[in-house]
C-alpha cells in the first residue's frame, strides 16, 4: 500500500532523468546499469544505492527508494555545470604493450574530453561493431579502473587491457576454472572467446557511453 501511495521506483527515476535533462536509459548508463534496469526491479539494491550516492550525492536515496521526503538533499550543493575532464586514450596506445593505460596517457599527448560522470579514469573510442547497438563504432566509453581481486560484476561490460591489446566486452566466468574468462559481444554475429586471466593487465568498468548522432 505504501508503494502505491508513494508511486513506483520507475516513476521517481523518470523524475530524476527529467531533472538531469536526459532519458532513463542514458541516466542508467551513467551508473553503469543495463538499459531498462529500473523497469525490471521492485527494489533498489544496496550496491546500486551506494553507487547512486557516489555519483549523485545530491540525490536523496531514501526518496528514490521509498518516495518519502524530497528528491534532493538540501545539505549537498553540487554544480554539475563544472566540467569534469578525462584523457581520451589514443588508438595507438591500445595495441598491446606491457604498460598500464595510465602510464601511456603520460607518454602520449592525449586529448582531454568532458565526461558526463565523475570518478572515471579515462575514455576510449570504440572500434568495430561487436558491441553494437549499445556501444556503436566510433562512440566514446568512459571507464573506471577497478580492482579485479575485490569484485567483478559478471555479465557487465569491461575494458580489458590485455597483452594482446584492448578489448571491450561483457565478461563471463568459466565454470570450475578461475584461470580464464569468456569475453562476449553484444552483437550476436560475433562469437565468444576465452581470455586467460593472467593475460589481463588491467580491468576497467565501463561507466557510460557517449554517441555522436
CATH class of the largest domain: Mainly Beta
Domain count: the total is 2
> Any idea of the CATH topology of the largest domain?
Umud Fragment, subunit A
Q: How does the overall form come out from the CA principal axes?
A: globular
Q: How many distinct helices? A: 6
Averaging pLDDT over every residue, what do you get?
Answer: 83
3D architecture notes:
With 213 residues, the protein is of the alpha+beta class. It folds into 2 domains: 2-66, no CATH class; 85-210, Ribbon (Umud Fragment, subunit A). It has 6 helices and 9 strands, in the order H-H-H-H-H-E-H-E-E-E-E-E-E-E-E. The chain has a 9-stranded mixed sheet with strand order 2-1-3-4-9-5-6-7-8. The termini are far apart. Residues 1-6 have low confidence and may be disordered.
What is the secondary structure topology, with strand pairs?
Layout: H1 2-6, H2 9-19, H3 24-30, H4 46-55, H5 61-66, E1 85-89, H6 101-107, E2 111-114, E3 122-125, E4 140-146, E5 157-162, E6 165-174, E7 177-184, E8 193-196, E9 200-210
Parallel strand pairs: 1-3
Antiparallel strand pairs: 1-2, 3-4, 4-9, 5-6, 5-9, 6-7, 7-8
Amino acid at each position: 500500500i505504501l508503494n502505491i501511495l508513494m508511486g513506483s521506483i520507475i516513476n521517481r527515476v523518470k523524475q530524476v532523468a527529467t531533472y538531469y535533462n536526459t532519458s532513463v536509459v542514458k541516466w542508467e548508463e551513467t551508473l553503469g546499469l543495463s538499459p531498462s534496469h529500473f523497469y525490471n526491479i521492485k527494489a533498489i539494491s544496496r550496491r546500486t544505492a551506494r553507487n547512486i550516492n557516489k555519483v549523485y550525492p545530491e540525490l536523496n536515496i531514501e526518496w528514490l527508494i521509498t518516495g518519502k521526503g524530497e528528491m534532493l538533499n538540501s545539505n549537498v550543493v553540487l554544480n554539475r555545470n563544472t566540467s569534469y575532464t578525462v584523457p581520451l586514450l589514443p588508438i595507438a596506445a591500445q595495441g598491446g604493450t606491457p604498460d598500464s593505460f595510465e602510464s601511456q596517457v603520460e607518454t602520449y599527448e592525449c586529448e582531454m574530453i568532458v565526461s558526463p560522470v565523475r570518478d572515471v579514469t579515462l575514455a576510449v573510442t570504440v572500434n568495430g561493431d561487436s558491441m553494437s547497438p549499445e556501444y556503436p563504432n566510433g562512440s566514446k566509453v568512459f571507464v573506471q579502473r577497478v580492482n579485479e581481486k575485490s569484485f567483478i560484476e559478471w555479465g557487465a561490460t569491461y575494458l580489458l587491457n590485455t597483452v594482446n591489446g584492448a578489448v571491450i566486452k561483457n565478461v563471463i566466468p568459466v565454470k570450475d576454472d578461475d584461470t580464464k574468462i569468456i569475453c562476449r559481444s553484444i552483437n550476436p554475429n560475433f562469437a565468444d572467446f576465452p581470455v586467460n586471466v593472467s593475460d589481463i593487465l588491467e580491468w576497467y568498468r565501463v561507466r557510460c557511453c557517449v554517441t555522436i548522432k
